[in-house]
Please model this.
Amino acid sequence: MPRHLHRPARLRALTLGLSLCLSCRLLAQDAPVYDFDLPAAPLGASLMRIASTSGHLLAVDPALVANLRAAPLHGRYSGQAAAEAALAGSGLALRTTADGAWTLVPSATPAAGTTAPSSPTPAPAARVSTRTLEGLQVYGNYESGYAANTTRAGTKTDASLLETPEAISIVTRAQMDAQGVQNIPQALRYAPGILTAQRGFSQDGGGQEEMYVRGFLVDQYLDGLRLPSRSVASYGASAVDPYALERVELVHGPASVLYGQSSPGGLVNLVSKTPTDTPLHEVGIQTGSYARKQLQFDLSDALSDTVDYRLVGLGRDSNTQVDHVNDKRVMFAPSVRWKISDATALTVMGGYQHDPDAGYYNTLPYVGTGKPAPFGTLSSHLDPGDPDFDKHRRTQYWLGYRLEHAFSDSWKFVQNARYMENRDTLQAVFVNGWAWNDGSLDDHTLGRYALAMHEATRTLTADNQLQGHFDTGSATHDVLLGIDYQRTLYRQSYGYNWFGVPGLDVLDPVYGASIDVPDYSADQHTRLSQTGAYAQDIIRWGQWRALVSGREDWARADTTDSIAGTAVDQSKHKFTTHLGLTYVTDFGLAPYLSYATSFQPQATASLEGGGTPAPTTGKQYELGVKYQPAGKQSFMSLAAYHLVQQNVLTTDPLTLLQYVTGEVRSRGIEAEAHAQLTDGLAIIGSYTWLQQLNTRTREPDEQGKRPIGIPRNTGALWLDYRVQAGDFQGLGLSLGGRYVGGSYGDATNTFTTPAYAVLDAGVRYERQGWNYYLTLSNLSDRRYVASCLYSQSACNYGSRRTVLLGANYRW
Model:
């Protein structure tokens, strides 16, 4: 019995959808030709493969192709010629709609030579998004190019990106592959409104993945569930390898109404690779700068008529641009999807990632990096730590599931849950500026200290959703009701050795000194929990779209220190909301406006007068416009916003007591474009203007000053050209540039790190299942300071030129 025989009619209709790829325009003359090697198959499946290869969209009545099969297709054809060959004898003909898509109509010639199986054999289902086109259903694989059509992160449903009233940036799998992405910050460096290089090389070298959106540090989520990020953990924050992901979604602005306590800047949602409905087999090898060696694989197929699997994994061993610092990783991410019945499906997702050498975390002084020291400039390859003492290991594993059950065509229940555990052990020598000898500054010896830290984080998250669709008069409602829960147990033990570490003479560095491992001076146990109830209604009335949502959260946190003998306990609740209105025109233009709020609890033991501070709160107004031309894989957006965060903690530099007196205001303009200009030429562009100020603070010298490391202007442009025909068909060339403006390196804005711009490039060649690629980041090998943290003693070099050379084979 065929494996998909029992799928309901609605899902069988989805299987006949075709991928939305590079273009929806059919060239009547001089059309590019492609190599096809298709076996005999259901007609819908063959048409899907042809459209995916040639870059076309198809609108089709599923009844037209039911019970029909296509003969084998081998050879070089244009997209239209291949589709017509598949349709030969079917009694159907190919037509082009006003939107530029293909559609099928009965032909004048009676069907001949067709075969009708004894029972319907639907085509393999594609992971699809839908929209209406001339009364038919149109289906497209949203990951086939650089522009996405739908977003789950913005509304927790598969909502139209065009109709969602907030700025959302999406990085597809195709973009990550073309740009040689090696971590999550790299995936988002061409997006607007986000800073991905605050930690400089340490982010690209396996270290901390800090990202700032609209000027605020944001957390990462995996499949809609929160990860242990920098706001919870320290060096042990999660860092999921991007090879395990299908896409990365960036929500700009407050998202507490759906996700609870979160940054006012937004969030980053990672979407896992899960089983595909058509077989997928890929293996690859990679080498490059710093003796890089990597093997990877991505396999998906059927285990039975109702069970599919996917296995994703890699192993990496590499040096880095800093001497003695390595980047090693083993990652394995299996998933299984079980179609329990026509109405119920369960997807189980797991992962294991071990980094025995977890990269670089150190800093260097501004004098010697941002500006010359008396001896000159520090090398970007200098190891300021001690290789005989330093070590850093990180291990994380997780197991979760997504359960979906349809009560009817209008109502379904979705439950997402995951357990995750992170363990991180760090022992390292860090820099704290230039050393002082006999009361005088030593301008070529780095002062250093040692840190020993162990972190363990266990998290349990669950999100229960009831999704409904119904009409009230002429209005259509998509309703979401949910209750979610988060529980985090976090233990951090650490100690410092401030005075027992010898300095490092940068003119004659000597390593291997005897350094005592610090004893733990703190052993903190933190328990965090949050329960939230939320409701959302997306209302469609004519060409208007309204979003109304609200949420009540109950959050609790308590921290005890078994060494210091301290305890802090706090319990807070907060209501947040998101309101939005969009008008969708007939030609793909959608202006919108929105209002959203956020909150983030704060736990501290040093608040003036004791007690615990109120959560920080955020409030944002946003006005924007989106544009998605019909029949093309392009998407553009422009947003302007006014965002204020209140109840920000400020610290007295003398007493170290903290006070809830701060307020930060962020205003900005963000522009983004993912456009397919021609059949072969695609472009990604972004620009951000950001004005962020401390509008209220306890320290007069910081009033009205810009926060550390936040530039006013950033921009990026990526051009990608693929040869469509001829002897060089399958060849692709890419060129990109990134600009980051200057930023202040301290809270009083006394010095700046200069602006910088770097070039990226790529070459790839695809032929007969092989994909050969060469990517280059920082093409000119420019040396620059990415940012300084807190003071002139803690600055970060950016990544130097990185070359990746690899080959993947897919069958």
